[in-house]
Amino acid sequence: MTDTGSLLTALECRACCTQVDPTKPVGTCPTCGQALLATYDLSKLDASAWRKGWAGRTASLWRYRELLPVQRVASIVTLGEGLSPVLPLGEVPTATGLRVWLKDDGGLPTGSFKARGMAVAVSRARELGLDALFVPSAGNAGVALSAYGARAGLRVRVYLPERTPPPMKEGCRAYGADVVEVPGTLREAGAAARTAEAGTGAFDMSTLREPYRVEGKKTMGFEIFEQLADELPDALVYPTGGGTGLLGMHRAFQELRAVGLLDREPRIYAVQPEGCAPIVRALRNGTPRAEPWADPRTIAPGLLVPSPFASERVLEAVRGSRGGGITVSDRAIVDAVRDLARRDGISASPEGAATYAALGPLVRAGAIRPGETVLLYNTGSGLPFSLAALERAVGAPDGSDARPRE
Question: Which one of 341, 366, 383, 398 is most buried, counting C-beta atoms within 10 A?
Fold first, then answer.
């Protein structure tokens, strides 16, 4: 057994059933090019002892190390990520009769949930002998990779859309990463990155184009179970760009069910902006994959993902939870940023605030019912964003509201 106790056995492609040896660096499936996901020998896990043992372990996501891929304790690259708080919210005027909680990843190292995925992915990259990494990013993932790459002593290059908020660009540079600014959206940044890095030997850390970021995001689900086991939420409302976090939480709930610790998982609702909603559209239309979104627009940079890679896996996760999807307007997102700050003292990124904006539409659509417990996921701090600038970007209120998309 490894000294972390990791039960990792293989990497598996759900599209073509290819299994890949996890002891060598690998990105996507060598057979079909789709996403690879880690598999674990759950038969070797004493689930009851595992759960009891969490209390005596470090207060970070590495407390779940048996179901994470890193094999050696010495390989772990950490800044203390994980175990973010779950906070009760006051009465939500647009969604009365609900018990509403918010899990806040805005206080994690680098200011967002991206710290989870990059902590695990960079740790595994170092363990497998990689020395140069790159990522196209809307901002937060680039900051996280820059920080964890610096911690691990690895070279990092980040490709950012030109419109990325300046504090995120400056954050990447402050950690010593090379930053390349690209016109357009994350789609164009991704294409530019893969063209420029071809043949350099640098490893692509893009969402679901490497197999281990999703394992770090999986810890969001483990934490929700640990923190709310006595009252697991009926519904989990999550802001969705690339969808890695959503997929990771579903994987966590599936593993907890497989080892007998969980009877049911929350219904997961993907929230996207009206101007860029490929996942919600696919859910509404019943299609197996998301088609690229034409002319994507939103004030939430992390949700400006017009062509999410491996969308089939993300859609499977939402459908497997018996959840759905919904869109919200940029105006509603900005109102939610302000309301969370002033009513509850929570600094939420536009992405995280989108979940608050979605509550009313979800109730009106009948997806969430009075008396249920709902967990909103705030994926990042609002500090890199100017509320005044967001207000200017959306203009004066026009009476429009979020539109439900089931």
Answer: 341
